[in-house]
Amino acid sequence: MSGFKEYHQYDGLGLAELVRTKQVTARELLTEAIRRAEIVNPKINAINNFLFELAQQSLNHLPEGIFTGVPFLLKDLFSDVQGVITSNGSKAYNNYLPPKDSELVSRYKASGVNIFGKTNTPEFGLMGITEPEAFGPTRNPWNTSLTSGGSSGGSAAAVAARIVPLASGGDGGGSIRIPAAHCGLFGLKPSRGRTPDVGGEHWDGASCEHVLSLSVRDSAAMLDQIQGPGIGAPYVIKPPELSYLAVLDTPLKQLRIAFTTQAPYGGTVALECIRAVEHSAALLADLGHHVEEKTPDFNGDMLLNSYLTMYFGHTAADIVDLKRLLGAEAVKDLEDNTRFLALMGQCLSASDYVSAKRDWFAIKQQMDLFHQDYDLLMTPTTACPPVAVGSLAMSGIKKMQTRLAVAAGAGMAGLCKKVLLDITKDEARKNLDKTPFTQLANLTGQPAMSVPLYWSEDNLPIGIQFVAPYGDETTLFKLAAQLEQAQPWRAKMPDIVGLCS
Fold it and tell me: Which segments constitute the Amidase domain (predicted)?
């Protein structure tokens, strides 16, 4: 491996095996990862905080784990590393130095990975694109004029560009699966309670942490390392009978798979995304599975409204936390959009929030009934291929209306409701119409994954989503491994990888 030019051909477990068998050293892997970051990052803006010195120091005391020596990147959202800025994609947090590692970061470290940077994310992880004012937009390695998705867009871009084979992410409405789909990666959102919570029952358990990866086995192996409740966990789930890595080698039964291309909120689904589902349905049938078209019976408007209620309410709570931690002055450094979303949260009543949570439960009941007949639900991960950077930004008029609303404050309830209808719902639907398939699993707590099974005529990856019953990551991993073997994707790389050759 002279010069480590073959680095990009390995997944994380493959690199760890090279270290374990002394074919390379952890220092050599880190040097190569840094070299690639320095070449590629100026073009895609995936990494917002380089921790090269910290990683060099860590080489002397990396623990013995399944990923020992593998270079790794953390999504810069609630991923506290002692003494390292956790910006949460915001200027408001840009000087915050956590006093200790978070539980999740401790578990990542215990796997043996060597953390050498943090990746870009929208402010507070609120968007399905990654374009924070604090750090600028992350660009898609497959076409740098397009978005990498969000909110784990920095991690996705870094993995797709082969800076690292896997990187951390979080998923509160699709934030692992959306960027995985846009960047041609494997991304699995675990069941509610499977991994340690961050931020204190963040988004009422809708948000879950895991990684985006080149290979299925890396995802399975890392979930083995980080799964299990943390101290004071609000949700505790039964652990798997076998490790997720071990089940990849076990037989998969014939599955009953329903598929739909109908967007839950009634929006348009791009023809290429429909073709991707049709292609995947044929592939699954060839593999011996029973596949049929069937749309789950739940109310899409109920799903949208209950999701937005949680989204607004937790944004308001996040600003309360910011004030407690850094003082009221820090709020002035937030983006207008974040402050406006928080204002919408302040306009909601307690009964609004309780009703929304009851709707979550009603939708979960519908999905439980659905899974009595079907093992999995298959959809496009997104309703369209990745869009242009900046195309989902608010217009100048909308920004002005937003600032006026924020200046007016929550006391003007009538204005708040009008703005909610005129701006927020319009802007939220405009964004969610691009990604309407992912929020379901966040509200119900089900595990879901995006698998890179299709590329458009423009050579853009289009992900396919599979949703399983609560607690059944095992079936998802087994199917993903079968699909990876039947239609390998790791050899597909964006041209930008060639800059590092």
Answer: 28-476
pLDDT of residue 2: 47
Domains and CATH numbers, the chain: 2-253+472-500 (3.90.1300.10), 300-373+393-432 (no CATH)
* Separation of alpha carbons 148 and 60, rounded Å: 34
- Contact (Cβ atoms closer than 8 angstroms) between residue 192 and residue 208: yes
Which residue do the tokens 């675990």 mark? 190
| CA atoms of 254 and 264, how far apart (whole Å) | 27
Q: Tell me the one-letter amino acid at 137.
A: P
d(CA 407, CA 1): 59
* Cβ-contact 244, 224 below 8 angstroms: yes
Residue 158's H or E segment, with its range, is: helix 153-160
Hey, what's the torsion of the CAs at 448, 459, 154, 105, to 10 degrees? 40
Query: pTM for this structure?
Result: 0.96
Per-residue model confidence as pLDDT tens digits over 430-439 = 779 999 999 9
For range 151-180, the mean pLDDT:
99
* Pair 83, 53: CB distance under 8 Å: no
The residues annotated as belonging to the active site are 75, 151, 175
In whole angstroms, how far apart are CA 291 and each of 286, 298, 363, 377? 10, 20, 23, 10
Task: State the DSSP code for 373.
Answer: T
DSSP-assigned states of every residue in 470-485: TT-HHHHHHHHHHHHH
How confident is the model at residue 347, as a pLDDT? 86
